[in-house]
Amino acid sequence: MGYSEQDIAKMQKLTRADLFSLEEYAQRRPEFRQQVMAHKQRRVIALGPYATLHFEDRLTMHYQVQEMLRAERIFESAEIEAELATYNPLVPDGHNWKATLMLEYADPVQRSAALSQLVGIEHKVWIQIADCEPVFGVADEDLQRSTAEKTSAVHFLRFELTEPMIEALRGGGNLALGIDHPHYHVMIEVAEDVRRTLLADLYC
């Protein structure tokens, strides 16, 4: 299948030429942040009361890089390139979804206990399209974020999809997400507006 220019643009990794300088970002940030927050509304899915999947794309990663540069006051070329190298792998490739898994507990004591119970949860997150086989996310390809004693509150996942799965989704197939962990079990069917948003990320 051929890619349109729009598809190619969405898949391209960020470069320094795409970024605003610190001064320019300070001026643009309120409007840019508002744009990104609206964009994210149909890309964030709650999986039960404590887990959330944030489906990333080029725009969300652009925002993340700009925020990191702003927070750390980074302007040196090598440090900017290091931030790009960290976040570019989360730009999807047209045949997969990439997502940030966040485990959120307001109470520190509850959070510590939960993260000790949920070791390995990052390998138990799955998606299923129509009646295709479930796909479990490939977790934390950059570095290990869990130990034998506790998991991290943040993980990065890649869901690799086959052509029949993508075609089933294009044909109107439903999309389900879930977590199958002994201490955290949930399954939801994705709302239609979110399903359409995620479908637009797939070009293969």
Mean pLDDT: 93
Largest sheet: 5 strands, antiparallel
Walk across the major sheet and give the strand order.
1-2-3-7-6
Total helices: the number is: 7
- Unreliable runs: none
Choose one word for the global shape: globular
Ends distance: 6 Å
One letter per element, helices H and strands E, the order comes to HHEEHHEHEEEEHEEH
Report the structural category: alpha+beta
Number of strands: 9
Strand proportion: 15-25%
Fraction of residues in helix: 25-40%
Please give the radius of gyration in angstroms: 18 Å
What's this model, at a glance?
With 204 residues, the chain is α+β, with helices and mostly antiparallel strands. Helix content is 38%, strand content 23%.
Any descriptors?
single chain, 204 residues, alpha+beta, 5-stranded antiparallel beta sheet, 4-stranded antiparallel beta sheet, 38% helix, 23% strand, globular
Account of the protein in words:
- The chain is an alpha+beta fold and 204 residues long.
- Helix content is 38%, strand content 23%.
- It has seven helices and nine strands; from the N terminus they run ααββααβαββββαββα.
- It has helices spanning 5-11, 22-40, 58-72, 77-87, 108-117, 163-170, 192-199, and strands at residues 44-47, 51-55, 96-103, 125-129, 135-136, 138-139, 154-160, 175-181, 184-189.
- The strands form two sheets. Strands 1-2-3-7-6 form a five-stranded antiparallel sheet, with no helix packed on it. A four-stranded antiparallel sheet has the order 5-4-8-9.
- Strand 4 (125-129) and strand 5 form a beta hairpin.
- Helix 2 crosses helix 3 and helix 3 packs antiparallel against helix 4 (77-87).
- The longest helix is centred in the N-terminal third of the chain and has 19 residues, at 22-40.
- The mean pLDDT is 93.
